[in-house]
Design goal:
Elements: H1 8-15, H2 24-38, E1 41-46, H3 54-73, E2 84-87, H4 97-114, E3 118-120, H5 128-140, E4 145-150, H6 156-159, E5 168-172, H7 187-203, E6 207-211, H8 215-225, E7 233-238, H9 244-252, E8 261-267, H10 271-284, H11 288-302
Parallel strand pairs: 1-2, 1-8, 2-3, 3-4, 4-5, 5-6, 6-7, 7-8
Helix pairs in contact: 1-10, 3-4, 7-8
């Protein structure tokens, strides 16, 4: 894989636009800017997988509680749509999957009390059954919980039939490498499966969050699938991938329907936590190196040089005001 030959500091340099920062303040600032500049909805996505040390698990749980609290209460969201929150089960693994279940259910209860929709993110195939079981159980209890299906997996066609009416499903091709016996490696087939899966989910009464950066398939989703139930559809993009023209086209309704566009906003508690995610993005899209360089050049042309100021303990002050803390 390409990323194995790239030192960690270079991975972080080239992929930095794909991560909102190393604290919640920076992530919330990104959410506010995305709405004010582009009219985008957002989901907060804390990076950190395969956590096994109890102290790290507690750090993750504390971070998620704060994400939920601030998504519900932060003053900066007055007059703006509040972000949803994505949770990764392997962030609470410790010694067994049941450890993760207890934490995920605890956070789902907390999200329910806060009134914040929660998405249980999908990781590699080891987690597929558990994630679907937990998400559907929580949804059945009346929680606003959704999950993710990866169309590279052959099993996803059958998994669609497990999704209850009204539940949110984020459709992606997936970025986890899987063996050929359980997954296709043909990206066009993955995306064709996304369209078929979206149609089947809408037929079953589910809500579809169509997540890809392939503009051909975004347009096909809008023209061929979303008209079945546009009020149950949205499209989703990842932070750092420039797609301003198609965002404008969705806002204008150029494809026959107007669909909300949501930005996934990954951030980490430290850059070391983000490295695995960044390497997967690099493996999936080697061209991201050139995209990042192009973005950096474009930003340098657009922005005046920043005023010099002394550093404050190496941390830039947040532009987002916190409430209640």
């Amino acid at each position: 894989m390409l990323s194995r030959f790239v030192p960690g500091f270079l991975v972080r340099f080239f992929a930095r636009p794909y991560v909102a920062g190393s604290n919640l303040d920076e992530a919330i600032e990104t959410v506010v800017t995305a709405h004010d500049d582009r009219g985008l909805l957002s989901t907060l996505d804390l990076l950190g997988e395969d956590v096994v040390e109890p102290a790290q698990v507690e750090r993750q749980v504390t971070a998620y509680r704060e994400m939920l609290r601030r998504s519900a209460e932060d003053a900066c969201f007055e007059g703006r749509p509040r972000p949803t929150v994505s949770v990764k089960p392997s962030g609470f693994t410790c010694t067994a999957a049941e450890d993760a279940r207890a934490r995920v259910f605890e956070l789902a209860e907390h999200a329910h009390r806060c009134g914040v929709p929660l998405t249980i993110d999908m990781e590699d195939r080891r987690w597929t059954d558990l994630t679907l079981d937990w998400a559907t159980q929580l949804y059945g209890r009346g929680h606003e919980v959704g999950t993710v299906l990866q169309t590279r997996l052959h099993r996803t066609q059958d998994d669609l039939e497990r999704i209850p009416a009204g539940m949110r499903i984020r459709l992606v091709i997936g970025i986890y490498p899987e063996p050929a016996e359980v997954a296709t490696t043909d990206k066009d087939e993955m995306k064709e499966r996304m369209l078929r899966a979206a149609k089947r989910l809408l037929e079953r009464g589910a809500r579809v969050e169509f997540a890809t950066h392939d503009e051909r398939y975004l347009e096909r989703f809008a023209r061929e699938v979303a008209p079945m139930a546009p009020d149950r559809c949205e499209v989703q993009l990842l932070l750092g991938v420039p797609r301003d023209p198609i965002i404008d086209r969705f806002a204008r309704g150029d494809f026959g329907v107007r669909l909300p566009v949501r930005l996934y906003v990954p951030f980490a508690l430290s850059w070391s936590d983000a490295t695995a995610y960044l390497r997967r993005r690099l493996n999936e899209s080697p061209s991201m190196v050139w995209l990042v360089l192009a973005n950096l050049l474009r930003r340098r042309r657009k922005r005046p040089p920043p005023a010099l100021r002394p550093p404050e303990q190496g941390v830039l002050p947040s532009k987002v005001e916190r409430s209640g803390s």
